[in-house]
């Protein structure tokens, strides 16, 4: 180890601390993995989180955020060359041990750059590109940690599960994103249901409630279809990896069900699950009840 660097064990501990403090929903699944895979997936998450945080730093000017993303893209080309960066130290070690497709992080950065530039999405296919960049990539990176005997079949399923989770995020965060000037739902879908998502001076949505309900439930049905494809990944994984994936997906599907049950409430407050419910989903996943 370089004297100015950090040790591999300490680097992994740092990444696991990031997961515990910032992962929220993902932490419930990651902790179900055996230690070597838990450490590796924590490294993947910690770097993905770094990219997301740069993209989401609305206090910083766009050119500054784009420059930071470009810098991280360059550093990723040789993560082992940064011995003082615990996240890259852990990520480099994990990639040496497991077939983690580090180039997928480049797509994640592409998606975050689109966020910084304020990109909008006209059609669902346009939005699908974004979802695959920012979430499908994480599914494929995670698959590199989990391992599978048929990566050619498994990778598109991991990608689909990431898309499902991202669509759920988008529905959960409509109000928060709107406050930041972002609308992710496809413009053609908004037009189809006669919605604008505009708010009046008091912050209330101006669209007729019945149209908003129809819009949200339409998008939720689409997300559920992506879960249907993505969850076919689970039988292709070992028991603990399937439990991890099942816990993450299960928590997000519960969120989606709550959003579907009361779309208007979901548009006004950020839908979340209590800790006990997340723990219950994780326990069921560990028991194999996700299959």
* Overall number of domains: 1
Low-confidence stretches: none
Distance between the termini: 43 Å
What's the mean pLDDT score?
A: 94
Number of separate strands = 0
What would you report as the Rg, rounded to the nearest angstrom? Answer: 19 Å
Your description of this structure?
The chain has 291 residues and is mostly helical. The protein has a single domain, classed as Farnesyl Diphosphate Synthase, CATH 1.10.600.10. 70% of the residues lie in helices and 0% in strands. The protein is built from 14 helices and no strands.
Q: How would you sum up this structure in a few lines?
A:
By secondary structure, this protein is an all-alpha fold.
Core attributes:
single chain; Farnesyl Diphosphate Synthase; 14 helices; 0% strand; 291 residues
List the helices and strands and how they pair.
Layout lengths: L7 H15 L2 H6 L4 H22 L5 H15 L9 H12 L6 H13 L7 H23 L4 H22 L1 H6 L7 H6 L16 H22 L8 H23 L1 H6 L6 H12 L5
């Amino acid at each position: 180890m370089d004297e100015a660097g950090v040790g591999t064990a300490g680097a992994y501990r740092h990444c696991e601390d990031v997961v515990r403090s910032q992962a929220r929903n993902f932490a419930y699944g990651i902790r179900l993995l055996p230690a070597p895979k838990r450490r590796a997936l924590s490294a993947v998450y910690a770097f993905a989180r770094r990219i997301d945080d740069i993209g989401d730093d609305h206090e910083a000017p766009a050119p500054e955020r784009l420059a930071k993303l470009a810098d991280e893209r360059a550093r990723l080309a040789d993560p082992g060359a940064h011995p003082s960066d615990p996240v890259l130290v852990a990520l480099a070690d994990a990639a040496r041990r497991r077939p983690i497709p580090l180039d997928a992080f480049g797509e994640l950065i592409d998606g975050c750059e689109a966020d910084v530039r304020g990109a909008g999405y006209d059609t669902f296919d346009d939005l699908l590109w974004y979802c695959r960049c920012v979430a499908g990539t994480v599914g494929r990176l995670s698959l590199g940690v989990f391992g599978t005997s048929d990566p050619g079949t498994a990778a598109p399923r991991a990608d689909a599960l990431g898309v499902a989770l991202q669509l759920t995020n988008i529905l959960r965060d409509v109000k928060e994103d709107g406050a930041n000037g972002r609308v992710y739902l496809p413009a053609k879908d908004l037009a189809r249901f006669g919605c604008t998502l505009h708010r009046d001076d008091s912050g209330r949505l101006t669209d007729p409630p019945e149209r908003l309900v129809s819009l949200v439930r339409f998008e939720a049905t689409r997300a559920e279809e992506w879960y249907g494809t993505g969850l076919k990944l689970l039988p292709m994984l070992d028991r603990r990896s399937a439990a991890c994936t099942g816990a993450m997906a299960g928590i997000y599907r519960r969120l989606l069900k709550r959003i579907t049950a009361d779309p208007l409430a979901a548009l006004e407050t950020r839908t979340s699950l209590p800790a006990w419910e997340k723990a219950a989903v994780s326990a069921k996943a560990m028991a194999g009840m996700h299959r």
